[in-house]
Amino acid sequence: PTPGLPLITAKQNDPAVIFTAVERAIAQLTDEDRGLLGIKGLVRIPEGDYLAVLNPEGVAQREL
User: Fold this and answer.
1) Residue ranges of the domains in the chain?
2) Taking the model in full, what pTM does it have?
């Protein structure tokens, strides 16, 4: 398995609340649906680890 897209939300939203809601929704999927979607689950990573990955050349860098 490979990682999917990061969970991104507006700054005014609490990412922990959204993460928990998505995690619960995934848990409620049937095994068949989870298999069809290719979803294993969610993983929390520190923001610094995510931001440490360089963007491809030519992608604008900006401070968050």
Assistant:
1) 15-51
2) 0.65
Question: pLDDT band at 3, cuts 50/70/90?
Answer: low
- DSSP-assigned states of every residue in 1-52: ----PPP---TTS-HHHHHHHHHHHHHHS-HHHHHHHT--------HHHHHT
Residues in the chain: 64
Amino acid identity for residue 60 in this structure: A
**Contact partners, residue 24, CB within 8 Å, separation at least 6:** none
The token pair at 56 is: 């491809």
Tokens describing residue 30: 């049937």
Residue with tokens 């939203």: 13
